[in-house]
Design brief:
The complex is a heterodimer of chains A (about 350) and B (about 120). Chain A has about 350 residues and is mainly alpha-helical. In chain A, about 70% of the residues lie in helices and about 0% in strands. Chain A is elongated, with a radius of gyration of 31 Å. Chain B is built from five helices and no strands. Chain B is flat and about 65 Å long. Classes of the chains: A mainly alpha (about 350), B mainly alpha (about 120).
């Protein structure tokens, strides 16, 4: 004997309520939906030798992931208790179990939010991650450029182009230093402009070196002088090959070291806040893409589940045995959400 | 048509399933924290645990153990497609039959040869 008490007369089809069948069909499609992403992740990883697995690099927090797993399992248990109580006509208890499930759902989203905030802080976002040293160096230069533009625009709002803004800053420094009776405000402005000018100088130097692939130990002027001499020599002696002087290339350590010095400097440090060292993560963008896609869609499903719980909880004291099928279906959906997380947790956090 | 007039509570059984799920989760986490040298073994343990947990949730919480044959009708096509997708994509990007020459592999080789002095993948 099964659980259904109705004696089936000449009824066609599967002996479960329509709602339950509908929910199961939907869950079937959801299984395919999520296995598409999980399968793609697995296949991408198989094809990528050097996928980042170090959790300090990917900023994957297994403690938070494990806590989330426990939270979802507990919430699944509570939902099943709610349905059980409902069938036993203990409506108040059932309502309370569902409320706890709702709360646990929000706890899950909160922990996910904390994890996402960490990723945003470290710029672990698809398309933002440099994958080799050259990209990392270019990223530092681009970040620096944006920072310089921002500071210049704040200091000289009247001008629009960087060269004009720089010119204004240099001019101001000249006039202010030559001024004999500087006020406190003038002094402060002079200091501010001097620091800004110094920062811009450092930026230009770093950018020139990175673009020319020149070690920071070699002054850029020397490199430029010799390069011009080489080009002239080559132009004069068209047939003979003049060996172009070779300089040591720039390395990521030098660039990051430069950034560290700037941030540690007393005057430049505060001005350069927002500048960070850059470390490449091979396949980092693919990793971030997969991570956000899978956990993002899962989080959306959690939110939808929570909305359904809210709808049922709004019935309040009107909860009755006829709601058993509804509660069971919502429970089925929630268990599915739990199931997906059960697979996401090892795949993303452990392996 | 009467509906569950005296429905026996299954609370105790559900609790046992919950405890089993907690134990499985713990096994997963411990397997990771212990830093097993063999990554394939870790993968095997962790995925086996995931499947066990999934079965617990599906069979008992989702009540599939006590449902009738329609469950196969629903789940068979979905499982087939779920398996088919990674299997069919694997030959496309999951493996190669030739020696590829892409930027990422060149970066990976460079990373391997300079694993010590670059510190490319290290952080702080």
């Amino acid at each position: 004997m099964t659980h259904t008490a109705t004696a089936p007369s000449l009824k066609m089809g599967i002996p479960i309520p329509n709602g339950k069948l509908g929910m199961w069909l939907f869950l079937g499609t959801e299984i395919m939906f999520f296995t598409a992403f999980i399968g793609t992740y697995i296949v991408m990883r198989m094809g990528s030798r050097g996928w980042p697995t170090d959790t300090h690099v990917t900023h994957i927090n297994i403690a938070l992931g494990g806590t989330n797993t426990f939270v979802l399992i507990l919430s699944s248990y509570f939902v099943v208790l709610a349905h059980d109580c409902l069938l036993n006509k203990q409506f108040a208890k059932a309502w309370r179990w569902m409320l706890f499930t709702l709360i646990l759902g929000f706890v899950f989203l909160g922990i996910k939010g904390v994890e996402y905030a960490g990723k945003f802080d470290h710029d672990i976002l698809p398309g933002h991650i440099p994958e080799n040293n050259r990209q990392a160096m270019d990223k530092v230069v681009n970040q620096f450029e944006k920072l310089v533009d921002k500071r210049l625009a704040a200091a000289v709002p009247s001008k629009a182009v960087r060269e004009d803004q720089r010119a204004v800053v240099e001019e101001s420094i000249k006039t202010l230093s030559e001024k004999s009776d500087r006020s406190k405000a003038d002094d402060a402005k002079l200091e501010e402009y001097k620091a800004l000018s110094q920062l811009i100088g450092k930026f230009s130097d770093l950018k020139a070196h990175v673009r020319a692939d020149l070690s920071l130990d070699v002054p850029y002027e020397e490199f430029e002088k010799n390069r011009k001499a080489d080009e002239e020599a080559l132009a004069k002696n068209q047939k003979k090959e003049i060996p172009i002087a070779k300089y040591p290339p720039i390395t990521l350590e030098q660039v990051n070291g430069d950034v560290k010095h700037i941030l540690a400097d007393k005057e430049l440090g505060p001005l350069a806040s927002g500048l960070t060292e850059s470390h490449p993560i091979l396949y980092g963008n693919l990793f971030a893409s997969n991570y956000f896609l899978m956990t993002g869609f899962h989080a959306i499903h959690v939110i939808v589940g929570l909305l359904m719980f809210i709808l049922v909880l709004m019935k309040g004291s009107r909860l009755a045995v006829k709601d058993a099928v509804l509660v069971e279906n919502i429970g089925l959906y929630w268990h599915f959400v739990d199931l997906v997380w059960i697979f996401l947790f090892p795949l993303l956090y452990i392996i | 048509m009467s509906d569950h007039e005296h429905h026996e509570s299954h609370g105790a059984a559900y609790f046992r399933v919950f405890v089993a799920l907690c134990i499985f989760t713990l096994v997963s986490v411990v397997a990771d924290v212990v830093h097993l040298p063999n990554k394939i073994l870790l993968g095997g343990i962790v995925l086996a645990v995931a499947v066990a947990k999934a079965l617990c949730v599906m069979m008992f919480f989702m009540h599939l153990k006590f449902e009738r044959a329609w469950k196969y009708l629903l789940l068979a096509p979905t499982i087939i497609i779920a398996m088919a997708l990674p299997l069919s994509l694997r030959p496309d990007i999951g493996e190669t039959y030739y020696t590829p020459d892409v930027q990422q592999l060149r970066d990976y080789d460079e990373q391997q040869t300079h694993a010590g002095d670059h510190g490319a993948a290290e952080h702080h």
